[in-house]
Structure formats: structure tokens, C-alpha cells
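User: Modeling request: complex.
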Amino acid sequence: MDVLTLSRIQFGATAAFHYLYPPLSIGLGLMLVFMEGLWIKTGNTLYHQMARFWTRVFALTFAIGVATGIVMEFEFGTNWAAYSRYVGDVFGSALAAEGIFAFFLESGFLAVLLFGWDKVSRKMHFFSTCMVCLGAHFSAVWIIVANSWMQTPAGYHIVVRNGMPRAEITDFWQLVFNPSSMERLFHTVCGAWQAGAFLVVSVSAWYLLKKKHQEFARASLKVGLTVALVASLLQAVSGHVSAQGVARNQPAKLAAFEGLYQTTSNAPLTLFGWVDEKNEKVVGLEAPGLLSFLAHNDFHAPVTGLNEFKPEDRPPVQASFLFFHGMVGVGFALIAIAALGFLYFRKGTLHERRWLLWILVFSVLGPQIANQMGWFAAEVGRQPWLVYGVLRTPEGMSAVVQANVVLTSLILFTFIYFLLFAVFIYLLNDKIQHGPDDADLKPSGKLALPEK
Amino acid sequence: MHFDLNTVWFILVGVLFAGYAMLDGFDLGIGALHLFTHEDQERRVMLNAIGPVWDGNEVWLVTGGGALFAAFPNVYATVFSGFYLALFLLLAALIFRAVAIEFRSKRPEHWWRQTWDIGFSIGSILSSLLIGVALGNIAWGIPIDSNGEFAGTFFSLLTPYPLFVGVTTVALFMMHGAIYGVMKTEGALHDKLRGWAMNSIIFFVICATTLTMATLLYVPHMSEHVREHPLLFTVALANMLAIANIPREFHHGNDGRAFLSSCTAIVTLMALFALNIFPNLVYSVTNPEMNSLNIHNAASSPTTLRIMLIIACIGLPVVLAYTVSIYWIFRGKVKLDRMSY
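Assistant: Request completed. Predicted assembly structure:
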């Protein structure tokens, strides 16, 4: 394989693995804020027990998220040096801002969240939990700003320096609020909330099935299902907003998502199916006019097809289509699951419906799959561009890096990441089997003192 | 020397990397010393001495890398693609030590803990060594062609001088970590750590003296500015006094001050490095005049440097404020409890 393919595989694989963890940190961070907030508000120590239990899980995901995140930062320089030279002026700023505003906040207050239970007052601890959650969200803000700039570049101009062209900032706020950043941020953060909430739901449903820690499980489900349902519904809204943004800003990407070759008014939305690339058509069940409506709020509006773009400017169609439809399908399934779970939980009959509990146990995979497919759709759909309309993917490669060297690092990191994943699952399972600690029903140290 | 934006950013990137060396230095050093004790309880105390702060310390590297990317993208691109394999080894080492800290005490079995202990220790030593080797290469200079690209190989990075800088870095971090450990522990482990601290001071002084001689003899451009401006020799003097002060403070039982001296030693070393390499960031051995990457030909636009400076002015004071308060919350000797590693 050539160095370009290997570098792309390596970046895709390390990013996909990394992205198993940050959504959990963001989502669980929010859950911890709710749990600890409820404890302080109600004084019910069950919530304290919950916060302590999920803090331990949070610590595990956070550690791997940080460790695999440094790899991402370094890879821009190692594998994509030409890209780094070209966009460092713009992209680097967002990345540096992430370090200063997000990572320090997160890691600093994490110390208090994890180890400060007995050392600080309730209010100080709750404040730290909020700061960790905020830091996790800030990191999403800056990395999405950076990535969205690659999708819809704005606030820059191309300047020739030392004989080489490169992008330089003209307007920082245009860069930050580029045409796609806010809607994509909304979409990404909803996905992260789902990841955290469904993890809580899944583990709690498992306890109900096994008739263990039932009181703890019910209290967790109350918080978990509520956040899961709200996040899943919001996700449908944000997905719709994002899709309209893609139609506006990246029409070739939208056409690939839907496998649409001819520009069509009354364009149909494929519910499920695949693309027959040779005959340039979609095989599957279609809802007429719906794509026009989703993209432009009008059943008769024309939607741009792939044939409007030169073949060398089109993204891979089949992959974009399948990732996009996979994501949407899982997204709708999650709404249904969360709604059913919430409904029966409110009725008080959830623990009798073992089939639904089993679905809830496996629902934890849903947000992870949808998040992964969504990112693959977004990044594959951006091809052949590294920076949409500005820099092509092959142009961003490091000039001095050879294929065998990339292969070495790829093999090394595949091995390391499989090992990490196995240990992560083993320890997560260990924590779940062990369950909440009964000692946590009694707050200790300074936390034991009632608030004045 | 006038203070334009590029110089300011040279200093800021330097501050971030010096901050990294000073902070992550002690937890890498604790890692290097980790296997010296065989008792599980003592290993746990050492881990928990760095427990609340190690990942915050590592953020200095992440932010330093981000700042380098944003302020001097050409340096970031040339060095990171040129040092490809070395950096992936560093990443692997950093990952192993990070997850080893988190995983180690999650299971009681001896084999489990021993495995992660070894991972933690080797990861820490290898990280320190590679950081030193990278720094050594930057000091010595690397082959850079007229396109600003690295023209060497992985093995051309492993020459004696950079390797010796690597060993010196391991010694420095061991010393720094041992002193931190002395400050954070009590009882038998405290006495052990004091012994290791004294030994690692000797180890470091031998390395540092040799390295100084080697630098003066073989890397003349790394002492050029101090030769031209004798006033700068005070930094070298401060460095030596700081190191000499460590055993003195130990003698008087001031463990905290000994640690501050060690911090000063690291910062003055970084300052000497920066003073001599300025205004270059990467010295080209093939054509120092034309091909070196300096604060002007490698930098981002003035607009970006100005925006970034505003970001830094807002962000850094806040970061410093809560970093200090978190060290304050976790001050004093380590006590193991339920939430400990």
C-alpha cells in the first residue's frame, strides 16, 4: 500500500478508537453533574452513591481518552506535515485554544472530582464536577470548530510566504462561527450526551435483570432515561439542521449521502437500501419528495446531484451513503428505545418487561455506532478534500515519511489499541459486576457535614 | 534583541515546555524510581503522590504542542514528520504509563500489578529518554534541506550527543521525582526516597558536568550567546547554585525548599537552552544560515500571533490560578483511602 492510503487508515483508525472515549467523558460528565446536583438538592444519599460509582467509570474512560487524544494531536505533524504548514495559522489556533481553555480545566478539576471527596466541601466538589463537565464540553467546542473549518472554511485568505501558499486568519470570529461549526457542535454534543446516558441506562437495566442493586438501578434509570430521551429527541432536531447545512454548504456531500446522481426536484429520501454505483441509482425503499423537503423545507425544491460535479471532485458514494443511513437508522431506533423505556419506567412496570430491559442493556452500543458512522460519513463525505474546496487530501501528506515507516507505526498502534480496548472492557465489566459500594451511602470527610 | 510578537511567542512556547519539564518531570521521575521498592503499599503511596496531578501535568505538553502548531507551524511540521518513529515511540510510552497508573490498582492479583508497574516504569523512563533525545537533536542541529524538510533518518537521530542528553534527562527527572517523593511521603518510604534523591543528585551532577563539557567542545553554537553576553552567565550560575542548594535544604529538613531548588534547576536549564538557540527554533546542520527554522521564517502571520496572544493572556492566568489551588488542596503527605489508586 502507498503512504497516502496507510496514513489515511492510520488517522481514521486512531481517530475512531479515540472517539469511543470523549463522548463518554462528555456524556458521563453531564450525568455526574445531575447526580451530584440531585444529591445536594435532595440530600438523598442514593444519589451520592450513584455519583461515586459513575465517577470511577468516568476516570477509566477519561484516562484512555487523554492518552489516545495526544496521538491525534501529534499525527497532524507526523503524517500530515504539508497540511500542518498550510493551515497551521488557522487550524493550529483552534487546537491551542482547546489546550488552554479545555484540557487544563478538565484535568485540573478532575483531581478534585476523583480524589477530593474527603478533602473539600460539598459545594467545592460540586463546583469541580461542573468544571470538569464544562471542560469536556469546551474541548468539543474547539475541536469541532477546527474540524468544521475544514468542512466549511471561512475567515481566512491564501497568502504566499517564502514561495509557498498557505491559509492565514483574516477574521477569528468568522473562523470560529464558520457556516457549519455551531450546527455540527450541537449534533456532536447531543451524540455525546446519548453515549453517556445510554451507558447509565444499560448498566442499570442489567442490574434490574439480575435483581441486584435495584434501588440504585431505579434511581439511575430515572436520571439516565430522562437524559437519553431528551438527548435523542434533540439529536433528531440537530440532525435535521445539520443535513440542511450540508445541503447548503457541501452539496456534493449531501448528494453522496443520498446516492443522488441527477439533480432532481421532488428528490426522494431513501429509507434503506444501497447505491448501485455502476448504474448510478439507489436500490431500496424511497419516500418521494422527502429529501427535497428535508434539505430545503419544500417538497418540490431541486436537490443538486453528483453529476453536477467533476468525477475527481466527488466523494466515495457507497461508503458515504451507507455510513449516513446507518447513523440515521440507529438514531431513530434510539428515540424509540428511549421513549419506550421512559414510558414503562413512568408506569412503574419496566422491571417486569424483560425483553425491553435486554434491549436497554444493548442500547449502549447504539450511540457509539451512530457516533462512529456519523464521523465516517462526515469525513468520507468531505473527500477528495482535506480542506473543502481548498486543499486536496494527497496534498496534505508529509513529504519525508515513507510507507514502511507508517506501516510500522500502524501495526504498533493497532496492537496497543487492541490491548487497551481489551483491558478497558475487562475493567469496565469488573466495575459493573462489583456494583455500587454500600459504603458510599454514607458520605465521609467534609462531605458528611451538612451544608450551612 | 527587540520584543516583537515572534519573540513573545518563542518565550511563551518555551514557558509551556519548561512548565512541562518542571511538572511532568517529577511524575516521570517517580515512574523511573517506581520499581526500586518491592512493597505494594509503598508503590501505591508513590503513585498516589502524583495521582491527582499527573494528567494535568501532561496537558502542558499537549498545549505546548498546540502552541507550537499555531505559532510556528513550519517547526511543528518539519520536526514532527522528521522525528516520525521517535515520536510514535514516545506516544506509545506515554500511553502505557498513563493507563498503567489508572489500571494498576484495579485488581489485587500480584501478576496484574507487577505487569502494569513495569509498564509504568519503562514507559516513564522511555518517555524521559526520548524527550531528552529530541531536545539533544534540536541542540546539536538536524539536517534540514532548502525546502525546510528533515533530511535525516530515524537512526541519524540516535547519535552520541543526543543520546547523552536523553540519559541526562532521565537523571534530572529521577532527581526531581525523588525530591518530590521525599516531600510527599513519611516513614520508611520517606527515608528510602531521600537516599534515592541523594544518589540521583550525584548521577545527575555527573551527567550534567559531562554534558556541559561536551556542549562546549562539540556544539559551539549552543554557548554562543552566553559567550557574547557575559551577563547571561548568571543563568548558568543560578542553575549550579540551585542544584547545590538541594542537599543543603535536605540537611536542614526543608523538603519543600529542596523541591523548589530542583524546579529552579530545570527552569534555568531550559532558559540556557532557549537563550542559546534563539532566534532559531531548529538549527540546520546542513546550512545554518539559510535552512535553519527561526522565529520569523517558521512563524504564523502577525494577525494570528496577536489573536493567540490574547487567548494566552485570558487563558494562562486562569490556568495558573486553578493549578496552584489544586496543588494547594492536595498539599501535604499522601494518605491512602478508598478512592486512591
